[in-house]
């Protein structure tokens, strides 16, 4: 299933990962869409704060956004299916890996 219009790199990656792993109903797709938008917001905030200098407030907000994404995506994963939805720290590691490869946040 194609990702909703307007998603950024982080959101599209999350969308692809979970749509490959699960068959989601309409309500779950709405939840996933919101999680993807939050993932993009976290990535954008992180990129902007890196340019301007990461403040404690920005760092805390990035962490809260990632925790929200993790909570939303965890709710989509059926219990005991053997596939874990990404945690907040997983999302942070993915963004850090992208920065290492490209020299910027995506």
Report on the biggest sheet. none
Order of SSEs, N→C?
HHHH
Principal-axis shape: elongated
- Give start-end ranges of low-pLDDT stretches: none
* Cα gyration radius (Å): 14 Å
> Structural class per helix/strand content?
mainly alpha
Features:
single chain, 106 residues, mainly alpha, 4 helices
Task: Describe it.
With 106 residues, this protein is an all-alpha fold. It has one domain. 72% of the residues lie in helices and 0% in strands. It contains four helices and no strands. α2 packs antiparallel against α3. The radius of gyration is 14 Å and the shape is elongated.
SSE topology sketch:
Layout: H1 9-21, H2 26-52, H3 56-76, H4 88-102
Helix pairs in contact: 1-2, 2-3, 3-4
In a nutshell, what does this entry contain?
This protein has 106 residues and is mainly alpha-helical. The protein has helices at 9-21, 26-52, 56-76, 88-102.
């Amino acid at each position: 299933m194609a990702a909703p219009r307007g998603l950024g790199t982080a959101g599209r990656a999350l969308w692809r990962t979970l749509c490959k792993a699960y068959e989601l109903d309409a309500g779950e797709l709405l939840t996933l869409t919101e999680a993807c938008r939050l993932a993009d917001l976290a990535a954008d905030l992180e990129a902007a704060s890196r340019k301007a200098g990461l403040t404690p407030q920005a760092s805390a907000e990035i962490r809260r956004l990632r925790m929200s994404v993790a909570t939303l995506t965890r709710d989509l994963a059926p219990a005991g299916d053997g596939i874990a939805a990404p945690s907040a720290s997983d999302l942070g590691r993915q963004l850090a890996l992208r920065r290492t490869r490209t020299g910027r946040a995506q």
